[in-house]
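Supplementary material to the annual report.
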Amino acid sequence: MMLRRPGEVLHRQTRVGLRIDGRDEARRISEALVAADANLHIANPDDFAAELDVVVADHPVETGAPLVLLARGLSYRFAEINVRALVDPRVSSGTLAAIIRLVAAGYSVMPASLDRGLNQLASEAGLTADETPLTAREHQVLALLVEGASHKVIARRLGVSPSTAKFHVASILNKLGATNRSDAIAVAIRRGLILL
Amino acid sequence: MPALSLLALSDAMAEAVTAAARSVVAVRARARGTASGVLWHPDVVVTAEKILEQDEDLRVTLPDGSSTEASLAGRDHTTDIAVLRLATEATVTERPKAAGNVSPGALALAIGRAGTDPIAAFGIVAQASGAWRSSTGGLVDARIRLNMELSPRAEGGALIAADGGLIGMAVFGPRRGVIAIPTLTIERVVPKLLAEGRVATGYLGLGMQTVRISPEGAVKDGAIVLSVDQDGPSAAAGVLQGDIIVGFGGEPVRGVPGLLNHLDPDRIGQDAKLDLIRAGQPVSVTVKIGERPNP
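Predicted assembly:
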């Protein structure tokens, strides 16, 4: 297996092998990746693994190429396979495409919590998905919370009653496991839910 | 120096509490139980931002026992400071002067108000060190931890030193430990909240998460860009989804919390160089730090 040095320029397309369970899911990911980054070339399933720059899989596979694993956590010995990135399956295609390019360039991209031990990692998502348990409306409310908006301001901005605004705030706190607004904001910053 | 008298110490502490209580109020802003606040001006109360479960129908019980309505003038979750404006001015407005530097081991008294009564707690300064950054990015001018049992009803109240000087506001910090929001921080934030209702912070327009990247064994943390505000300053500078931020203004960035250090209000409008890794290549862009949009 050839690994390029970090920073070495790829003068051709990045060849990506998909090892995804389910034909529809594989097609969805394939189309999304190509749409996100024209420099990605999705190989045919029967292409030789040796000619692949990166393999994207949703389960552990033996492959000579560096592996981007779509998984919410690790419950097995990832060191034995060539996992170079651990990514939540729900991540957006743009982010996944960027991670594939990084791995192809010789980097590994892991959740920062990796050092804290595998037990914790197994319970955490890898790179958490862009999408969250929050509804679109709750996202709007969260953005207003960061700006220090009162319930009244939230209500006015969203065209809802103050009690509805209050309900949304309570729901956000509940979903993020937060005890108050600033706690919710701290959690949301860590999870990338709030724009800085 | 007179011999230490337990009675004299006790009397002095009670006196100090009585004196400080003249500027401490009770604040009703949540469904269960009240919290406390400090009269900052005749018509302005400072309290803890966290205790504001509601921001309307606020009531304040003044030191003289009378009760008045209050409205929220502004809240800053980054420093846990909220400012209320009173419908009726308080008559007594002698707020304690700021305490000098406090040292670990120094005695400290927390004063709150429950109903119409002053309530007190006693402890020592457990730690006193330099400025720190809260988990939501606020700059707090000193890290003052107290060894003290604080009632939730006294949260937001005054914390005074042995000479009666105001160390700051007593609040629950990380892991429910009692900390002081220093007087200096309050003095810095209150005028902004009174003027604008908020503390404007720097804004990049990026949603990020901390990731650990390792090119050839060298491991470091960076912030991967998950989303870009298309109308924000980073989009204008050409930052793309999937970029990993590893440097800001020439300093290494160790994950998302490290970026908060660079977004203080005084950075708004300044240019900053962002060092990125994009598709394995180091890339630098210059971002003009914006201001978080006003709700």
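The two ends of chain A are 40 Å apart (CA to CA).
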